Amino acid sequence: MTRVLAIHSHSGGTGKSTFAANLGTVLATEGLRVGVVDTDVQAPGLHVLLGLSEPELCCTLSNFLLGDCEIDEAVYDLGDRLPEGTTGSLWVVPSRLNTQVITQIVGGGYDAGLLDEGLRILVRKLEPEVLILDTQAGMNNETMVALSAADAVMMLLRADEQDFQGAAVTTSAAQRMTSPPTFLLVNMVSREDDPDRVRESAEAAYGCPVTAVLPHSPVLAELASRGVFVLEHPDHPHTEQLRLLAKRLLDETPEPGTAPPAEPR
Fold first, then answer.
1. How far apart are CA 49 and CA 246, in angstroms?
2. What CATH number labels 3-252?
3. pLDDT tens, 78-102?
4. Which regions of the chain are under pLDDT 70?
5. CA distance 16 to 260
6. CA distance 130 to 28
7. Closest CA to 205 of 181, 174, 172
8. Which end of the chain is more exposed for a tag (fewer CB within 10 A), N or C?
């Protein structure tokens, strides 16, 4: 069975795509079959993080939504980029960072049901154990389809009151229309901040527990979009934190067709 995990945020700049790329890679290096889909068709960037250049992208999710190709033509196998001896698999379905394509999607629109159909086809053909959806920040058609398809949602936010409040509103709106359990992650917390204070502030804004508080990593920031952190720095403490978080997410994400846990923490 495939667990579908949506990575979401209220606003940009939370490290959502970086987190999605690293989470997918960590799970693959742990021996799982993993697919990562960039559903942010208006501002895609996952392919850059995972080492795919624009000229390599013959077909993408954007092209599928416009009716230019089949969804399985937009799947790129990144298994050869994993460490030697890895038994897991990693695929990515990117979206196209191309002004003309983005303008077509934004201006002309498309049948939002195609995204749901495409995700179902991917699950059937790839049979991944985990499918990660990198969503667009805020709320729109693509985001609602992705959240509806998810077995759990990881909401990323920054450690400031404005983002706490905005993300709380976004999460509340999403949960009125969808019902997957939500995990909260406060990302890129300054090392000068008290993690307990940050956790308390976030939990007060949401009224539910925070799954993790991840400190700002200068090494991760320096790498920027030039690679996947967990591959470049497999022994770094931040990588170990991501491994532990990935295991926890899988342990607490309900299997499809089962009741969700009482309250993920």
1. 19
2. 3.40.50.300
3. 999 999 999 999 999 999 877 777 7
4. 108-109, 160-179, 257-265
5. 24
6. 9
7. 172
8. N
Tokens 């092209």 sit on residue: 63
Q: Cβ-count burial of 146 within 10 angstroms (0-12 exposed, 13-18 middle, 19+ buried)?
A: buried
Identify whether the C-beta of residue 156 lies closer than 8 Å to the C-beta of residue 185.
yes
User: Domain residue spans in the chain?
Assistant: 3-252
123, amino acid identity: V
Distance CA 110, CA 97 (A): 17
CA–CA separation, 39 vs 55, rounded Å? 19
